[in-house]
């Protein structure tokens, strides 16, 4: 297991961020799409998203502060050994994340989004941004997003689990980009 962010043409070369001891970076063969978690507060969900990122070869960016210590046992347990192969970057703040992402659209997944995710045309450089479990994202982050998409749900229900929402929209975006079709392995 080797490689670094600089091996990945889809990611900026210099990031004002720190790498986690949890992640051992891999070469991302097809750096399509990225997932970003805004100040996640449940370690098991972050672990599940790291596993998702590893399985789909999609980098995961964590916008801190998190609501748990990053060496949390629950995070490790949930990410299992997939945490070790996920290409992950931790950003110390929202501002640091923005500084690192000066190109590509920020597509916010939001229960307040006006566009059903299936009606949205994803591009390879999009970053799928997910809100924190307790409070979603603040207004400034909502406003800064280039697009806001919603996964339709049964009326009266509040929201999906954040890792489930990430999986639903990531799968659709990869499908649209032709990454999944006709393959049993990525
Ligand atoms: C548990 S939800 C947050 C709920 C929070 N109370 C709120 O009002 O946003 C965590 C994140 O999952 C994503 N999410 C959950 N359900 C969604 C849906 N139906 N459509 C789009 N995103 C969703 C969003 O990114 C959300 O910020």
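^ structure tokens above, recovered residues below v
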């Amino acid at each position: 297991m080797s490689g670094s962010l600089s091996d990945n043409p889809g990611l900026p070369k210099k990031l004002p961020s720190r790498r986690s001891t949890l992640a051992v970076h891999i070469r991302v063969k097809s750096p399509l799409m990225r997932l970003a978690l805004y100040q996640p507060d449940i370690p098991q969900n972050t672990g599940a998203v790291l596993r998702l990122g590893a399985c789909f070869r999609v980098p995961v960016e964590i916008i801190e502060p998190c609501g748990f210590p990053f060496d949390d046992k629950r995070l490790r347990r949930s990410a299992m050994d997939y945490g070790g192969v996920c290409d992950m970057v931790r950003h110390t703040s929202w501002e640091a994340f923005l500084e690192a992402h000066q190109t590509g659209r920020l597509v916010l997944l939001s229960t307040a989004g006006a566009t059903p995710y299936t009606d949205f045309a994803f591009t390879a450089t999009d970053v799928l941004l997910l809100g924190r479990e307790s409070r979603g994202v603040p207004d400034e982050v909502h406003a800064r997003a280039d697009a806001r998409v919603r996964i339709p749900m049964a009326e009266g229900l509040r929201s999906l689990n954040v890792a489930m929402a990430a999986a639903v929209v990531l799968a659709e975006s990869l499908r649209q980009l032709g990454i999944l079709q006709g393959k049993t392995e990525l």
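The domain at 21-176 is CATH 3.40.1280.10 (Alpha/beta knot).
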